[in-house]
Amino acid sequence: DQQVKQNSPSLSVQEGRISILNCDYTNSMFDYFLWYKKYPAEGPTFLISISSIKDKNEDGRFTVFLNKSAKHLSLHIVPSQPGDSAVYFCAASARGSNYKLTFGKGTLLTVNP
Amino acid sequence: DSGVTQTPKHLITATGQRVTLRCSPRSGDLSVYWYQQSLDQGLQFLIQYYNGEERAKGNILERFSAQQFPDLHSELNLSSLELGDSALYFCASSVGGAPNNEQFFGPGTRLTVL
């Protein structure tokens, strides 16, 4: 049972435009959400996170939005740059599960020059 | 460079064999996590150690075991290997054990079971 779902395996956008990556979750106990970025032949790198007490968190070009009622979060990248091309993983954790992270399958973002 | 090192980078072995993957966390990090990434799968959490003690367990098979040593490095032991164990195995570390302790990932060990 996939508790964290990234339904789009891939996304292609033009440089300078907005990239929107989506993530849905089913476990209502999740209270902390993270986005990781992964380049080929490297491990994932932490990008941005959000606690369930917030609905938005911003860090430079990256903004994460959380809609708890819809059990949905999204990552916005504005403006997108070719160096943003990578696989993006959504992850979630729940206080009662000793904070282990549950990851989605990832979305491959390609930013075209 | 995340500061987390994993050895070896690649491992090719046969079914039924046993292998050991090694992870050295970032300096000062007390928590170590192991993840498996199979083809078409996201990162599956296997197990977490905090300061030498097992903290959380995920989808780890009984044929797999791990430990964290006093110097905080960790080893993941995979035995009676099957074809389906072929995957990327990542180690991550963090300062503490809570979710807002950002996890830093190593480059991974690619295991191929033939």
Concise description?
The complex is a heterodimer of chains A (113) and B (114). Chain A is mainly beta and 113 residues long.
Give the class of chain A from helix and strand content and strand pairing: mainly beta
Mass-distribution shape of chain B: globular
Order of helices and strands of chain B: EEEEEEEEEEE
The coarse overall form of chain A would be globular
Radius of gyration of chain A: 13 Å
In N-to-C order, the SSE pattern of chain A is: EEEEEEEEEEE
Oligomeric state as shown: heterodimer
Main interface pair? A-B, 26 and 27 residues
How many helices of chain B? 0
Beta fraction of the residues of chain A?
A: over 45%
What is the straight-line distance between the termini of chain A?
38 Å
Q: Which structural class do the helices and strands of chain B define?
A: mainly beta
Total count of strands of chain B: 11
Percent helix of chain B, as a range, is under 10%
Description:
The complex is a heterodimer of chains A (113) and B (114). Chain A has 113 residues and is mainly β. Helices cover 0% and strands 56% of the residues of chain A. In chain A, the strands form 2 sheets. In chain A, strands 2, 4, 5, 9, 10 and 11 form a 6-stranded mixed sheet that branches. A 5-stranded antiparallel sheet of chain A has the order 1-3-8-7-6, with no helix packed on it. Chain A is globular and about 45 Å long. In chain B, the strands form 2 sheets. In chain B, strands 2, 4, 5, 6, 9, 10 and 11 form a 7-stranded mixed sheet that branches. Chain B is globular and about 35 Å long. At the A-B interface, strand 4, strand 5, strand 9 and strand 10 of A face strand 5 and strand 10 of B.
